[in-house]
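so my prof wants the structure for this chain in the tokens format not the other one, which i didnt know existed until like an hour ago. anyway here's the sequence
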Amino acid sequence: MLAGLPLALTACAASTVVSPRITPPPSLLVQCAAPVRLPERALTQAEVETFWGRDRTALRRCRGRHQGLVDFVSSPPS
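here's what i got, hopefully its the right format
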């Protein structure tokens, strides 16, 4: 019984499919920007809006890159 185990394991190993490693474009691997560092003082309304806008823009860009990476990984190889 134990003698047949190595044969069974090698038969299973032969049936696995190894896909070639495909690397995504470097533009999809850029790290997301950190949130804007706020000064340690009271902020004006204009400053709050500016910092908030910068963070929102960075989040949109990051989301776009992550979606691009998801699309790249989930698309069939050509």
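also thought this was worth mentioning. Helices lie at 4-14, 45-74.
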